[in-house]
Amino acid sequence: MKNNIPEHVAIIMDGNGRWAQAQGKKRTKGHKVGVDRAREIVEASVKLGVRCLTLFAFSSENWNRPEEEVSFLMELFIIALNREVKALNKNGVKLKFIGDIGAFNSKLQQSIVKAESITKDNDRLTLNIAANYGGRWDIIQAANQLIAETPGLSSVDETTLASKLVTADLPELDLLIRTGGETRISNFLIWQAAYAELYFTDTLWPDFDSSELEKAITIFSGRQRRYGLTGEQITKTEES
Ligand code: IPE
Ligand code: IPE
Ligand code: MG
User: Fold this and answer.
1) Is residue 206 in contact with ligand 1, taking CB distance under 6 Å?
2) Which of 122, 125, 128, 210 would be a feasible disulfide site paired with 94, CB 3.0-4.6 Å?
3) CATH number for the domain including 7?
């Protein structure tokens, strides 16, 4: 597993509700176990040498869920953050939230600011939690920053726009995983996924353990990323 470890892995952690319902439990139970799995995957990523892990925890569309589920998730985020920050810090994990954090309640915002500041000097793994994140929102907020900074701006290029996305300081996305059987992006890292390898699995998030991550990475390692070139051209550059 040493070779070809993706530098940046992102995961759409889907299937919590169905996992719980299949066991006759409330959807919220699935979210709770989902947090345990997130912890396991973070630890496994550190061990495998992944440098950057981005987890989709709450989309900008998830506000439309029943109010009871949304409040449960907010409470769960606060509890999990406060509980996990010490271990994350010990493991050399730098925590960063990406998304429109201003929409969360002040208690959650405080926990976020605190956790980010405690872990800010760590460099073993950058853990991005995408919360109230949407890929279209990301592109729009980047464009708006540029407009605000440069009055009269008439055009932008890819590099300039990318420099304002929430992922600006992060390595390129290599591998995008979605659990839970759906084969869609659901407005996650739509710009950043342009050349990412996609990996879809039917495994529901509460069942996605470290061996499932290793499996995804092994499959990633066996793929040839061609970026528009021919297979022969890639083999030649690899040989030289
Ligand atoms: C993903 O699991 C977690 C969040 C969106 C917060 P779901 O809650 O979407 O689970 P399913 O897809 O309904 O099973
Ligand atoms: C995507 O899952 C968001 C997260 C995993 C946080 P959803 O379950 O909300 O996506 P859709 O609604 O099935 O597309
Ligand atoms: Mg879902």
Assistant:
1) no
2) 122
3) 3.40.1180.10
Domain interval for residue 64? 2-239
Structure tokens at 180: 């839970």
Q: How many domains does the chain have?
A: 1
Global pTM? 0.97
Q: What is the pLDDT of residues 47-103, one digit of tens each?
A: 999 999 999 999 999 999 999 999 999 999 999 999 999 999 999 999 999 999 999
Distance of CA 145 to the CA centre of its chain: 23
Q: Residues 167-210: pLDDT tens digits?
A: 999 999 999 999 999 999 999 999 999 999 999 999 999 999 99
Of 16, 69, 179, best ligand 1 pocket probe by most atoms within 8 Å of the beta carbon: 16
For ligand 1, is residue 109 a contact (CB within 6 Å)?
no
